[in-house]
Amino acid sequence: MLKLEKVTKTYKTGDLALNAVSLEVPAGQVVGLIGPSGAGKSTLIRCINRLVEPTSGEISLAGESLTGLKGSDLRRVRRRIGMIFQEYALVERLTVMENVLSGRLGYVSYWRSLLRRYPAADVQQAFALLERVGLAGRHDKRADELSGGQRQRVGIARALEQNPELLLVDEPTASLDPKTSRQIMRLIQGMCRERGLPAIINIHDVMLARNFADRLIGLRAGEVVFDGPPDALTDEVLTTIYGAEDWTQLNPEEGAEEAADEPAVRPQAPREQMVAAT
After folding, report:
1. What CATH code would you report for 27-38+70-215+228-249+271-277?
2. Element (H, E) at 271
3. pLDDT tens digits for 170-223?
4. Greatest Cα-to-Cα distance within the chain, rounded to the nearest angstrom
């Protein structure tokens, strides 16, 4: 379980990004983090994995405090937290497989990573994840040869290659078309349910959040102003989160999900597998 207690972040400029945010996320729950730009959504996610230092408050994962950790202890905890980024954060000159295996960098020695000699179990898991995200047979493709949706799938596989205890997702559909956005959200939701993995997804698209999150948390000016199930996100609540607007056109689509994420990719004849240490 992830637990935040009165987490506050004030920047050096004096701007208050988070104001005493408290929440708990149990195992297996997918949380959609919604709110206007500047509400503190990205700051909250980055405080959890300590890319941003909270000014005060307590953050814990499975009972272990994450605040105050430094050096090797912080690196050890970060291995337990998978991160999926809006702009994919792939190394474009590397192959799909190499990008996925970078999720194991926190577990292998410097020389193993430099020589790309990952343990056989890590390579096998990476192949299985690529098949699961719909990229079977594309392990030797360079990342810069992929579409946006495919790059995001690589990012999902890389995060899960860590075998994380928590998944943090920062605007995963911001650069994608509507159909691909639904496919990516469905994939994240499905992977979390399969693994009992808790996730927090910072997302601007309220309709996607309603359709694919188990719970929604609304932030405004750094404070939690809504915390509840998607069907409780009424027009009045939306006004509280975002301000006055005509919300009558914002209705979740019922039964509109595609039967499959994408047409199946026919596996290519695999080239020589990456060298795996015995």
Report:
1. 3.40.50.300
2. none
3. 999 888 899 999 999 999 999 999 999 999 999 999 999 999 999 999 999 999
4. 61
Q: What are 133-171's pLDDT values in tens digits?
A: 999 999 999 999 999 999 999 999 999 999 999 999 999
CA distance 29 to 27: 6
Q: Is 259 left (phi over 0), alpha (psi -120 to 50) or beta?
A: alpha
| Number of other CB atoms surrounding residue 229 within 10 Å | 11
For the sheet containing 30-34, what is the strand order? Answer: 81-84, 166-170, 199-202, 30-34, 215-220, 223-228
Cα torsion for 129, 190, 80, 31, to the nearest 10°?
150
Whole-angstrom Cα distance, residue 59 to residue 67? Answer: 6
* pLDDT of 226 over the 90 cut: yes
Q: What are phi and psi of 89, to 5 degrees?
A: 55, 40
| Angstrom distance (rounded) from CA 151 to CA 161 | 15
Q: pTM of whole model > 0.90? A: no
Q: What is the rounded distance in angstroms from the CA atom of residue 142 to the CA atom of residue 131?
A: 17
